[in-house]
Amino acid sequence: MLSGLPLPLLAGLMAAGLLLDALLGEPRRWHPLAGFGNCASSLERVLNRGGLRRLRGVLGWALLVVPPVALAAWICSTADLWLAAAVHALLLYFSIGLRSLRDHVLPIAAALATGRLDDARGLTARIVSRDTGTASADDLARAAVESTLENGNDAVFGTLFWFAVAGGPGALLFRLANTLDAMWGYRNARFLQYGWAAARIDDLLNLAPARLTALTYLLLGDPRRGWRCWRTQAAAWPSPNAGPVMAAGAGSLGVALGGAAQYEGRVEQRPPLGGGAPASAPDIARAWRLVAHGALLWLALTVLAAIIFERTLHA
To answer: Which sequence ranges are marked TM in the entry (predicted)?
Structure first.
């Protein structure tokens, strides 16, 4: 493996990282990604001024991402096997967000199901950048399903992909780059130039994971409809990677997404995704299960590959 880990060990460490995430979830205090985000905000306020904004954005990205990833790679490559294995598993645990995704989206479904619209608006505002203050129940359900499908790639499958490629340091690299894209990758006056590098690097790192995520959604839902939506709708979506993920996911679930959304007081009309009835509260849980079952599928395939590899090696 490119990670340098034997395939059986990689499968075991992937299982360990997923198990830690399932049991512990995000650390409630002193979360490394929260500290990283605070550092990124502080550095952006210093660097994002004056001329050469793109170059400053490249510098900011490098200062934030290269040192921790290089340190993680050095520890994993120089420590003894058991310590290195523990570091790989912990890095995957800190980088993946499967349980966090569940803990953020399922309460929205519960609030909508019980008619607590104000609670649902507040909960949805935590996971999307659109305005939710006057959003209807249908608007909130649509936003939550879209966020679940997109973050299935960003918080789960992309992390697993880069863990398979480069172990714990690969998972860390992907998650830090994705975090900076989420913070800096806006096409507005403040970030259009400074966030250019963060957005492009995230696009590059997501090229393969996004399409594997879309394929996963197809396999676990309605593959024919999902493929049709991927083929006909993805190109119209602004993001080259979110388009395939969300179109395939919406088609596989058989729900209609996209359409009008309000950002900073203005209504933005986005291309349609999927097909069928508009998303509703129960579809949030269906989208979550699609992501969760996909993670289990990836783990099962990795374990199966490890078994086949071992049997072939000792045949």
So the answer is: 58-75, 81-98, 290-309
